[in-house]
């Protein structure tokens, strides 16, 4: 007698096989940038506390912000802020019932990435040019 065979069940696609949709990647990045904003806001509060503590503390905070690691943190905070803001606007438009089609949904996601990078670079260009003309 032949033994009954179990029905073939589909296997869950592995991360190397499954292609992530851009909207799924944007959802993950939105959560990551939200977490980064928590950390960056704590650093911003520490900077304000140094400003309130006196000139020596503020000078140290300003020195750290001017180091390469400090500038990298500030750039990352700006990028996270712009990405999270544009993602929030995208979700607001979706909540209004617009942009839910598959093509426009993907275009909005790509625009979120391009826009966040462009706004971050623009903010830093303006900030650096103002600091160079003021100093």
UniProtKB/TrEMBL annotation:
Protein name stated in the entry: Succinate dehydrogenase cytochrome b556 subunit
NCBIfam families: succ_dehyd_cytB
Quaternary assembly: Part of an enzyme complex containing four subunits: a flavoprotein, an iron-sulfur protein, plus two membrane-anchoring proteins, SdhC and SdhD. The complex can form homotrimers.
CC cofactor: heme
Protein role: Membrane-anchoring subunit of succinate dehydrogenase (SDH).
Entry superkingdom: Bacteria
PROSITE patterns listed in its UniProt record: SDH_CYT_1 (PS01000), SDH_CYT_2 (PS01001)
TM region(s), chain numbering: 35-54, 60-82, 109-132
Family: Belongs to the cytochrome b560 family.
UniProt keyword terms in alphabetical order: Heme, Iron, Membrane, Metal-binding, Transmembrane, Transmembrane helix
Record localization: Membrane
Membrane topology of the entry: Multi-pass membrane protein
One Pfam assignment: Sdh_cyt
InterPro entries: SQR/QFR_C/D (IPR034804), Succ_DH_cyt_bsu_CS (IPR018495), Succ_DH_cytb556 (IPR014314), SuccDH_FuR_B_TM-su (IPR000701)
Main location as per UniProt: membrane
Organism per entry: Labrys wisconsinensis
């Amino acid at each position: 007698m032949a033994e009954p065979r179990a029905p073939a069940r589909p296997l869950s696609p592995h991360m190397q096989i499954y292609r992530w949709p851009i909207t799924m990647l944007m959802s993950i990045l939105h959560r990551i940038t939200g977490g980064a904003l928590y950390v960056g806001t704590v650093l911003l509060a520490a900077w304000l506390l140094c400003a309130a503590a006196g000139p020596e503390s503020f000078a140290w905070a300003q020195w750290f912000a001017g180091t390469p690691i400090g500038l990298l943190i500030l750039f990352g905070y700006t990028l996270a802020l712009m990405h999270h803001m544009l993602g929030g606007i995208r979700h607001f438009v979706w909540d209004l019932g617009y942009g839910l089609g598959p093509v426009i949904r993907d275009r909005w996601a790509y625009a979120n990435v391009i826009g966040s990078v462009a706004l971050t670079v623009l903010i830093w260009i303006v900030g650096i040019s103002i600091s160079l003309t003021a100093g």
